[in-house]
Amino acid sequence: MKHPASLVVGILLFVMAAAQAGRVILGFDVTAEGVEIPVWISAVAAVVLAVLGIWLLKERNN
């Protein structure tokens, strides 16, 4: 098995992307220090995390 750490990180990125997508779908409110975080930020984060996960796992296979 080559690069087991990259597999773990790739899976972790997909889990985080799923959590962000879940927030978008379910519409959870998030407040940090009294400032409400807009849902669209989670949508962007979900896409970025998924792309990074795909990139990492594709690079792992080379």
Notes on the structure:
This protein is mainly alpha-helical and 62 residues long. It has one domain (4-60). It is 73% helix and 10% strand. The chain contains two helices and two strands. The protein has a two-stranded antiparallel ribbon with strand order 1-2. Strand 1 and strand 2 (35-37) form a beta hairpin. Helix 1 packs antiparallel against helix 2 (39-60).
Strand element count: 2
Radius of gyration: 14 Å
Mean pLDDT: 93
Share of residues in helices: over 70%
For the sheet with most strands, the description reads:
2 strands, antiparallel
Whole-Å distance between the termini?
13 Å
How many domains, as an integer?
1
Q: Which segments are poorly predicted (pLDDT under 50) over 5 or more consecutive residues?
A: none
| Element order: H for helix, E for strand | HEEH
Q: In percent terms, what proportion of residues is strand?
A: 5-15%
